[in-house]
Amino acid sequence: MQNIQAVELAKAYRLLNHGPTTIVTSAHGGVSNVMAAAWAMPLDFDPPKVLLVIDSSTLTRELVEASGEFALNIPTRALAETTLAVGSSSGREGDKFAALDIATFPSEKIGAPLMSGCLAWLECKVIPELHNQQRYDLFIAEVVAAWADSAAFSAGRWHFPADDQRSLHYLSGGAFFATGEAFNVELKP
Amino acid sequence: MQNIQAVELAKAYRLLNHGPTTIVTSAHGGVSNVMAAAWAMPLDFDPPKVLLVIDSSTLTRELVEASGEFALNIPTRALAETTLAVGSSSGREGDKFAALDIATFPSEKIGAPLMSGCLAWLECKVIPELHNQQRYDLFIAEVVAAWADSAAFSAGRWHFPADDQRSLHYLSGGAFFATGEAFNVELKP
Question: Residue ranges of the Flavin reductase like domain (chains A, B) (predicted)?
Fold first, then answer.
């Protein structure tokens, strides 16, 4: 069982600040879907906003535009194959949750399910910006709730408990990096 | 000496796809500046576009709006202190290149200087989107030239030659992650 704790909204950007690859979950009208997205990042601190690029051909795009909502799930290295798989097939071809044996649990403020086994979750409501959506496939959203597995993130800090529980950074093909060594630097006086 | 090679524009997104922290260089009217930016990511593949968030209070913002150009430089772990320092002071207080002993070399397609010792460089021209700039501090730009140190990136792949030559992922305060272990996964049949 994961010990899932709320993340203070003013610190929610720290879940994304290091540039991890995300998994996007969405739902509308009884249909839900899951896909991978490397192109997600913070846009503002408080209230927290995020940017997400969603290709116009995807089922996720249809569900996000219809519902005005999505969740960003931060997967672990243990979920790298699943991350590649949800990014390599369309929800129009069949239910990816069932096909890939992906367990979920309910979000609090939106309709999209959250993916079990991830490190953190950001529940997001789209701020409608039709020009960006239509011209650039770019979505701006406000983070309305954020959660993290306390084994990996607490008090505004990541502390990955094991190598297969580190976050992921996607390159291309099936190539990823794990999030590496943490270190601190100080300003010289 | 770094062996700097051109990166094919269709593969330039791979310089940013894993979410590294960047250093932004800019210039206009004889003034140049350098600052850190964790909030930069790809927006499109070919022609490549990027997103960059630039706070409205910064000298960089003024130079980018005036010139319509900026460069994204990808720093190494060896440059982590410099990355923190250029993100912690304003170019209005004095020339950060001189104060922090930052060497540069000329870009090819834009006026901003490129920072020596980095892993890769993206020369960018702003696509004017005033609503995004004014409301969200968000800039959309096309990548017009891209370069990489061939010791770290070639044939579309990263291969960091040493631990202090890995890219960086910023969290907050002086806390960073290094880019970690590379690995590949395959789709199950």
Answer: 14-160
